[in-house]
């Protein structure tokens, strides 16, 4: 059937075929007539590859179908579903004598002449088919790389004694996949790519920044959420942050069971600083939080703290340290945890699980026996000096080139992110501004949107709006159709900015009655504002976007 249709196409007769899996009022979905000019087969791609690459598979997916590797892909076991008709391709590329990476491509039959690369998360090794599905439903040809290893997001052991694998994860797999992926897309459709995009959150945000710093012309636009960009600082100091509260059970250590009480007290003191009592803390900086309200001593101001979860003086000191910046010899290593991020601390500071510690074991020292008690400041200095895998995108000046070419970047970060501290995005913004131009010029191509109450790149514990169709937010399924427009969808907003010059002044984010099931209906909508602007409540129903403005 597929072959028959292609023969018709090659003879010059365009078959008007409606895959009709996606509909939107946005103009760029209207004209899609760029049918592939070659078949979806291993042979079709084999002839297009350099010697160091090979085709693993090329599989035709029918409209409405799904694709992925299922549980065999430990990083991304979720298949992309409800796909348009497309060709799903996997390519393997040798990156050194001992290493290789794979990348996947979704090549939709109805192609809109756009290219999209999506990123990964944490240390995840696997092709991110789920996020590829999100972009290809708009008609984009989409790629994702496994970054050169197979692992879950928290597993670092693969990096042991292999600078080549670290480099593949750090930048090489993305760099090579974007370059070869673009060539294959153009060869497959026999047509030039009109616009190229990137979408990624967390490590995905870092990967996008790194690729743009290496090659200013890789993308015309990038949508980056909560980028885990400052790797050498963030990952090396991960052990510092945990060490504050270790060993668990010690008098100074705060148990996980107290976090809810701490979060509730932060809410009690900070919620209304922004003028609205809605269970969402919008102005974490404006809140002068009194930690002592959590003290067990009832003669203090404390009236609200749960008596069985109150903190003794040593724990109060621990809490203060967690909220404070980590500096060495006067230079900032990493900003302190943000108020309102407490419920995420089991992933970062209040835990004896060693996910991030693995960086010191397997990236820095190649010593599996190293334990957190041996932590000292010089390890951070070593990490900054060596940056194993060259993964840290700190060549801020290089981004001036991206801006000069007309590139646009939308970044977003949740204020309640307890994994990647939101202030690290403010810092990045400042580093970029200082290295490229000044703040006013920054606005022409780089915009940061801070999201009150959102946790790490998606989700919320307080009903705060978080969904803008960012990477990882749809989990392989299409998002709600009524949000597929540039007002509510970060990627579509970015495309309008790049292609039509429509600057993005706000993005309306959404939360759902059941955040795991968008079909359950909306809970809240609110605009995210271009930093440093803030949301201002105008009165009326706080759950409706029109009652807020950016000022
Ligand atoms: C995912 O897709 C692959 C390939 O299409 C298929 O073999 C596998 O059964 C699917 N797995 C799940 C869990 O849907
Ligand atoms: C693979 O070969 C191509 C063409 O020779 C080259 O440009 C590319 O850098 C190579 N890729 C890797 C990962 O070595
Ligand atoms: C990752 O797993 C796939 C099978 O799912 C395998 O083909 C590939 O070789 C593995 N990659 C590495 C780097 O081991
Ligand atoms: C008080 O804290 C304890 C554990 O620290 C918890 O089990 C309990 O549910 C909390 N009570 C309230 C009313 O929050
Ligand atoms: C902590 O670091 C941030 C930068 O992330 C800076 O703005 C702030 O002033 C620092 N706080 C203190 C108390 O030094
Ligand atoms: C810091 O830790 C490293 C690794 O354990 C060790 O080699 C080094 O001697 C330590 N430095 C100091 C100043 O203690
Ligand atoms: C901090 O400064 C002291 C004194 O100059 C120096 O010995 C030490 O190595 C510095 N620490 C780091 C981590 O750079
Ligand atoms: C940016 O430059 C200003 C002015 O030189 C300086 O005060 C500020 O510390 C710099 N910010 C960062 C993050 O380096
Ligand atoms: C929310 O949706 C998920 C996924 O459909 C479902 O498993 C869960 O039961 C729902 N929760 C509630 C409270 O309805």
Q: Would you give an account of this structure?
A:
This protein is 27% helix and 17% strand. It has 551 residues and is an alpha/beta fold. It has a domain at 234-389. The strands form 3 sheets. It has an 11-stranded mixed sheet, sandwiched between helices. It has a two-stranded antiparallel ribbon with strand order 8-9. A two-stranded antiparallel ribbon has the order 14-15.
Record keyword descriptors for this entry:
551 residues, alpha/beta, 15 strands, binds 2-acetamido-2-deoxy-beta-D-glucopyranose
Write the SSE topology.
Elements: H1 2-10, H2 42-46, E1 53-61, E2 86-94, E3 100-108, E4 114-118, H3 129-136, E5 141-145, H4 163-189, E6 195-201, H5 203-214, E7 221-225, H6 231-244, H7 259-270, H8 313-323, E8 326-328, E9 331-334, H9 358-364, H10 377-386, H11 399-404, E10 408-414, H12 423-436, H13 439-442, E11 446-451, H14 490-500, E12 506-512, E13 522-530, E14 535-537, E15 548-550
Parallel strand pairs: 4-5, 4-6, 6-7, 7-10, 10-11
Antiparallel strand pairs: 1-2, 2-3, 3-5, 8-9, 11-13, 12-13, 14-15
Helix pairs in contact: 4-5, 6-10
One 2-acetamido-2-deoxy-beta-D-glucopyranose binds next to helix 10.
Give the cofactors and ligands.
2-acetamido-2-deoxy-beta-D-glucopyranose
Strand adjacency order, main sheet = 1-2-3-5-4-6-7-10-11-13-12
Instruction: Give, in order, the helices and strands.
Output: HHEEEEHEHEHEHHHEEHHHEHHEHEEEE
Rg from Cα: 24 Å
Number of discrete helical segments? 14
Average of per-residue pLDDT values: 91
Strand content: 15-25%
Structural class by secondary-structure content = alpha/beta
Question: What fraction, in percent, of the residue positions are helical?
Answer: 25-40%
Number of strands: 15
Biggest β-sheet description? 11 strands, mixed
Low-confidence regions? 1-31
Q: Could you tell me how far the N terminus lies from the C terminus, measured between alpha carbons in angstroms?
A: 56 Å
Principal-axis shape equals globular
């Amino acid at each position: 059937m597929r072959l028959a249709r292609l023969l018709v196409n090659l003879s010059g007769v365009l078959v008007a075929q409606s895959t009709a899996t996606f509909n939107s009022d946005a103009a760029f979905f209207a004209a899609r007539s760029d049918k592939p000019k070659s078949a979806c087969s291993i042979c079709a791609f084999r002839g297009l590859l350099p010697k160091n690459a090979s085709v693993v598979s090329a599989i035709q997916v029918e409209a409405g179908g799904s694709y992925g590797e299922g549980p065999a892909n430990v990083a991304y076991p979720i298949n992309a579903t409800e796909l348009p008709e497309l060709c799903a391709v996997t390519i393997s590329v040798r990156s050194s004598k001992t290493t290789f990476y794979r990348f996947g491509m979704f090549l939709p039959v109805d192609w809109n002449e756009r290219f999209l690369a999506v990123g990964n998360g944490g240390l995840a090794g696997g092709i991110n088919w789920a996020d590829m599905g999100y972009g290809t439903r708009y008609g984009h040809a989409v790629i994702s790389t496994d970054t050169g290893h197979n692992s879950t997001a928290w597993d670092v052991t693969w990096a042991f004694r292999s600078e080549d694998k670290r480099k593949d994860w750090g930048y090489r797999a993305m760099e090579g996949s974007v370059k070869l992926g673009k060539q294959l897309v153009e060869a497959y459709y026999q047509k030039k790519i009109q616009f190229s995009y990137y979408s990624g959150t967390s490590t995905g945000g870092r990967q996008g920044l790194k690729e743009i710093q290496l090659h200013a012309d890789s993308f015309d636009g990038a949508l980056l959420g909560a980028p885990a960009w400052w790797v050498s600082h963030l990952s090396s100091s991960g052990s510092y942050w945990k060490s504050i509260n270790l060993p668990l059970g010690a008098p100074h250590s705060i148990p996980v069971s107290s976090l809810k009480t701490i979060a509730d007290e932060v809410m009690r003191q900070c919620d209304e600083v922004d003028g609205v009592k809605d269970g969402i803390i919008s102005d974490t900086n404006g809140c002068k939080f009194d930690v002592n309200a959590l003290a067990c001593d009832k003669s203090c101001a404390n009236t609200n703290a749960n008596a069985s979860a109150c903190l003794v003086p040593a724990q109060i000191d621990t809490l203060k340290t967690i909220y404070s910046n980590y500096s060495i010899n006067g230079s900032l290593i990493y900003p302190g945890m943000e108020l309102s991020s407490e419920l995420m601390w089991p992933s970062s500071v209040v835990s004896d699980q060693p996910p991030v510690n693995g960086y010191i074991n397997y990236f820095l020292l190649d010593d599996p026996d190293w334990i957190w008690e041996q932590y000292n400041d010089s390890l951070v200095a070593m990490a900054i000096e060596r940056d194993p895998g060259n993964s840290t995108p700190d060549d801020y000046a290089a981004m001036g080139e991206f801006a000069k070419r007309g590139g646009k970047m939308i970044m977003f970060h949740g204020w309640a992110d307890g994994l990647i501290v939101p202030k690290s995005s403010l810092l990045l913004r400042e580093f970029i501004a200082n290295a490229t131009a000044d703040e006013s010029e920054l606005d022409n191509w780089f915009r940061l949107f801070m999201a009150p109450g959102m946790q790490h790149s998606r989700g919320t514990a307080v009903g705060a709006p978080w969904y803008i169709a960012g990477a990882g937010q749809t989990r392989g399924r299409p998002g709600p159709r009524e949000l597929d427009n540039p007002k509510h969808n970060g990627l579509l907003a970015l495309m309008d900015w790049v292609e039509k010059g429509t600057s993005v002044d706000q993005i309306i984010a959404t939360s759902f009655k059941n955040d795991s099931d968008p079909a359950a209906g909306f809970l809240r909508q609110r605009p995210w504002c271009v930093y440093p602007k803030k949301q201002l409540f105008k009165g009326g129903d706080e759950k409706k976007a029109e009652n807020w403005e950016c000022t």
